[in-house]
């Protein structure tokens, strides 16, 4: 009856290895049931780490994970015209939507007015890597690579202190039992 139910619903039982073995019997008690038998492979049993009279069942599922490409945009504050933004915000009545009855509604109204002003003034850029944090830009990546190169150089040179100046910042790698890598602004 159980086998008929599986066949009627187009399911296949994939485990044909015994999962409970005694002195005189071997039984298949643990089942792996699927509607796509071509994706299940490498079926095997193994001794369990727990106090159990059953063997564990291991198998592989063949699948392909497709990541959906997400296009993300971020404000390009380096090219922002803050004087124009101040001018737009000074002539915009940011309390237009306040009716005093609901704090959440007042917040949403103020936020929408403010973000509309920001959208009209500050340009957006398309992020190359949608998974990276928004604050990582070319300058941060360049400094990070420089830090990595200096760390490798200091590690292989056995020098006590290695300091290198990079544009307006300095990077220090100090080896004294432990490694300290610091970014500091030159002022």
Short summary:
By secondary structure, this protein is of the alpha+beta class. It has helices spanning 2-8, 82-91, 103-121, 138-157; strands at 12-13, 20-21, 26-27, 33-34, 40-46, 56-61, 73-75, 124-126, 161-166, 169-176, 178-185.
Q: Which descriptors apply to this entry?
A:
single chain, 187 residues, alpha+beta, three-stranded antiparallel β-sheet, two-stranded antiparallel sheet, 11 strands, 26% strand, disordered C terminus
Task: Explain what this protein looks like in three dimensions.
- By secondary structure, this protein is α+β, with helices and mostly antiparallel strands.
- Helices cover 30% and strands 26% of the residues.
- The protein is built from 4 helices and 11 strands, in the order H-E-E-E-E-E-E-E-H-H-E-H-E-E-E.
- A hairpin with a 2-residue loop joins strand 9 and strand 10.
* DSSP helix fraction: 25-40%
General shape: elongated
Averaged pLDDT: 78
Distance from N terminus to C terminus (CA atoms, Å) equals 82 Å
Oligomer: single chain
Q: Find the count of extended strands (DSSP E, 2+ residues).
A: 11
Radius of gyration: 31 Å
Largest sheet, strands/sense/barrel: 3 strands, antiparallel
**Strand order of the main beta sheet, please?**
9-10-11
Fraction of residues in β-strands: 25-35%
Number of helices: 4
H/E order of the elements?
Answer: HEEEEEEEHHEHEEE
Describe the secondary-structure layout.
Elements: H1 2-8, E1 12-13, E2 20-21, E3 26-27, E4 33-34, E5 40-46, E6 56-61, E7 73-75, H2 82-91, H3 103-121, E8 124-126, H4 138-157, E9 161-166, E10 169-176, E11 178-185
Antiparallel strand pairs: 1-4, 2-3, 5-6, 7-8, 9-10, 10-11
